[in-house]
Amino acid sequence: MQLQQLRYFTAVAETRHFTRAARREHVAQPSLSQQIRSLERELGAELFHRARGHISLTDAGEALLPLARRILADTETARREVLEVAQLRRGRVRLGAPPSLCASLVPDVLRTYKDSYPGVDLVVHESGSQDLVRVLAAGELDLALVITPLQGQAPALTTVELLREELVVISSPDGPPPVPGGRIRIGDLQGRPMVMFRHGYDLRELTLAACREAGFEPVFSVEGGEMDAVIGFVRAGLGVAVVPSMVAERSGLRTTPFAAPGLHRTVSVAHRGDVSPPRAARELQRILLNRAGRPDGAATP
Fold first, then answer.
1. Mean pLDDT by 10 residues, the chain (301 residues)
2. Sign of the C-alpha dihedral, residues 151, 199, 108, 136?
3. Comparing C-alpha atoms, which of 169, 177, 291 is closest to residue 240?
4. How many CB atoms lie within 10 A of CB 56?
5. What is the pTM assigned to this prediction?
6. DSSP-assigned states of every residue in 49-66
7. Whole-angstrom distance, CA of residue 147 vs CA of residue 144
8. DSSP notation for the chain
9. Burial class of residue 111, CB neighbours in 10 A (0-12, 13-18, 19+)
């Protein structure tokens, strides 16, 4: 018994027509009929009642049909599993991430991934969360690190919480600290020159929202920069900036934490809700969750 014979048998059973079944299977009708005859001889029973203009299953055919479908389904599952294993030896994963995470979490994760799967090419798209959500929804990324909850009319994405990150204030070590004490309040930023990210950065929107909630509009000395530019402007003494703690640790700048309850953001890993990521991307997500100490994170559509 051959898989090809079972496919042909199933096609005839579902179309109830030899010619239509042959067309569906992209094979000549005589070849299909010959294969089914061979299958019947091997099984020792006819599978179809062949009346002119009408094809129906015999009792033997009725018994074989669910078994044939199961065998074909199991075969396809096995093929996909083997293919996915092969994809971990080669292939491509497209990851989107904000610049703050590209400068902190992402490099270590990608190094771990490359150590395990050196044949998989990694493509990183660096942008703010709002931009990443659009690119991910368009199918141009497999995974993206985004800030949740998503803002506005977000497309149908599945997100898994990765980490809750503390935000801090960075300032030039050459000047005086932003406050005399060890911790700063949001209100202490009122009237103080700030270096601000460009539109589309979640850090921009988060900082603006916190200042407005405290009852004031921040003053920008420079705005419109990317992460590296913002750090450079702060180092030059042009103002202070609110950044994630992981970025501050690597910046070499003075770091001042916020007073309780502090200021935080939640980072999640996201993929399209209507498409399951390929195996190589799922492995990258697993490494991300393990790196953040959340191996059993629950998915949230």
1. 91 92 93 94 93 87 93 84 73 90 90 91 90 88 90 75 93 90 91 91 90 95 90 95 91 93 92 85 93 59 46
2. positive
3. 169
4. 12
5. 0.65
6. EEETTEEEE-HHHHHHHH
7. 10
8. --HHHHHHHHHHHHHS-HHHHHHHTTS-HHHHHHHHHHHHHHHTS--EEEETTEEEE-HHHHHHHHHHHHHHHHHHHHHHHHHHHHHTTSEEEEEEE-HHHHTTHHHHHHHHHHHH-TTEEEEEEE--HHHHHHHHHTTS-SEEEEEESPPSS--SEEEEEEEEEEEEEEE-TTS--SSSSS-B-GGGGTTSEEEEEPTT-HHHHHHHHHHHHTT-PPEEEEEEE-HHHHHHHHHTTS-BEEEEHHHHHHH-SEEEEBPTT--EEEEEEEEETTSPPPHHHHHHHHHHHHHTT-TTPPEE-
9. exposed
Question: What is residue 152's predicted lDDT score, i.e. its pLDDT?
Answer: 61
What is the rounded distance in angstroms from the CA atom of residue 299 to the CA atom of residue 301? 7
CA distances from 210 to 164, 168, 201, 233 (A): 17, 13, 15, 22
Q: 158, exposed or middle or buried, with CB in 10 Å at 0-12, 13-18, 19+?
A: middle
CA–CA dist 78, 64 (Å, integer): 21
